[in-house]
Design brief:
It is built from eleven helices and 14 strands. Helix 3 (108-121) runs parallel beside helix 4, helix 3 (108-121) packs parallel to helix 11 (317-333) and helix 10 packs parallel to helix 11 (317-333). Strand 11, helix 7 (215-227) and strand 12 (233-237) form a beta-alpha-beta unit. The radius of gyration is 21 Å and the shape is elongated. With 338 residues, the protein is an alpha/beta fold. It starts with a strand and ends in a 5-residue tail after the last helix. The chain has helices spanning 11-23, 51-55, 108-121, 145-158, 172-178, 192-199, 215-227, 255-262, 271-275, 278-291, 317-333; strands at 2-5, 27-32, 37-42, 60-64, 84-86, 89-91, 97-101, 125-127, 162-165, 181-184, 205-208, 233-237, 267-269, 295-299. The strands form three sheets. The chain has an eight-stranded parallel barrel, surrounded by six helices. A four-stranded antiparallel sheet has the order 2-3-1-4. Strands 5-6 form a two-stranded antiparallel sheet. The protein folds into two domains: 2-64, Alpha-Beta Plaits (2-Layer Sandwich); 84-333, Alpha-Beta Barrel (TIM Barrel), CATH 3.20.20. The structure holds phosphoenolpyruvate and manganese (II) ion. Phosphoenolpyruvate binds next to loops. Manganese (II) ion binds at residues 103, 273, 299, 309-310.
Length: 338
């Protein structure tokens, strides 16, 4: 249930409602919008609450049952889009944020070279995997903490905030010591133990859609993090499994406007994993921006032919720069900047 406060509600009136809700044993999520304050009530047996009792309280305009199974993630909870500030880079605002870098951090030299190249071409966040969730146990699993150190050094040199994947609850602390955004990969979208642990810390979380997750399941996964108290969650469309074999996955462009309608969370598009082929990355990135994506994540490698992972879908620095040029007018056409 959510309680919508009157436009001119006094702080004391908000406080009284919050105290009443908490006194009944429920958790409260406050959303202070420009127009009004919304109080979200979170609890397993929230249906037992009597809406009319709250409507009798001073400063309350109305109460509403949230129809969707996810609550804090829903549009009902916040009409205003969530904007996540990562070291001055705002994800969910008018500017399209571009996250770029190698699939895996392979060495200090290749990471620094890539970081400078993507920064030069206009990327605003550096990506790079240090803990890699590979489909085969025999594939390269990432450099681990050594990779995290190179990411931190690249941030120091370029000023770009860093995003990298965290695979287990035990790794959250160490990854959080180095990274600005914690990425949850498609293979972990429904790892609820990991999601709950991420809800208990405050670093922004980048949550990928599982390759077989529905949009509702993705938003339910986001709810696990949000309901723990961490409001800095962005979700990512990265392609789903379909019967089409010509691309690695099928990028679900529908997911972008669907999520915009259903949720206030920023949405990122990953056309690299979504297609599996570098030549398809720029056109699908353009489609995603046109459809309303707030950010793009792509893979860039100095020489994709020798990449240790995902070379086929990685852009060279030159091709990345070309993609940035092609994206700018699309962003402008939909009222955004790049
Ligand atoms: C990645 O970003 O390199 C990655 C492993 O992505 P996903 O989890 O979408 O497969
Ligand atoms: Mn990859």
């Amino acid at each position: 249930m959510i309680i919508v406060m009157q436009q001119n509600a006094q702080p004391k009136q908000v406080e009284d409602v919050v105290r009443r809700v908490e006194g009944l044993g429920y958790k409260v999520h406050l959303s202070r919008g420009e127009a009004r304050t919304i109080i979200g009530i979170i609890g397993a047996d929230e249906h037992l609450l009597q809406p009319t009792a709250f409507e009798a309280m001073d400063g309350v305009e109305k109460t509403m049952r949230v129809m969707q199974p996810f609550k804090v993630a829903s549009r009902d909870f916040s009409q205003e889009n969530t904007v996540i500030d990562v070291g001055g880079v705002k994800i969910g605002g008018p500017q399209i944020v571009v996250m770029a870098g190698p699939c895996s951090v392979e060495s200090r030299e290749m990471l620094l070279e890539t970081a400078h190249a993507v920064k030069e071409a206009g990327a605003t966040i550096l990506r790079g995997g240090a803990f890699k969730p590979r489909s085969s146990p025999y594939s390269f699993q990432g450099l681990g903490e050594e990779g995290l150190r190179y990411l931190a050094e690249a941030r120091e040199q370029t000023g770009l905030p860093v995003i990298t994947e965290v695979m287990t609850p035990e790794d959250i602390e160490i990854v959080g010591d180095y990274a600005d955004i914690l990425q949850v990969g498609a293979r972990n979208t429904q790892n609820y133990v990991l999601l709950r642990a991420l809800g208990k810390q405050n670093k922004p979380v980048f949550l990928k859609r599982g390759m077989s997750s529905t949009i509702q399941e993705l938003l339910m996964s986001a709810e696990y993090i949000l309901s723990g108290g961490n409001m800095h969650v962005m979700v990512c469309e990265r392609g789903i499994r379909t019967f089409e074999p010509l691309t690695r996955f099928t990028f679900d462009v529908n997911a972008i406007p669907v999520i915009k309608e259903m949720s206030h969370l920023p949405i990122v598009a990953d056309p690299a994993h979504g297609t599996g082929k570098w030549s398809l990355v720029a056109p699908v990135a353009m489609a995603a921006v046109a459809a309303g994506a707030d950010a793009i994540m792509v893979e860039v490698h100095p020489d994709p032919t020798v990449a240790w992972s995902d070379g086929a879908q990685s852009l060279t620095p030159a091709r990345f720069a070309e993609m940035m040029k092609a994206l700018a007018p699309v962003a402008q056409a939909v009222g955004r900047t790049l």
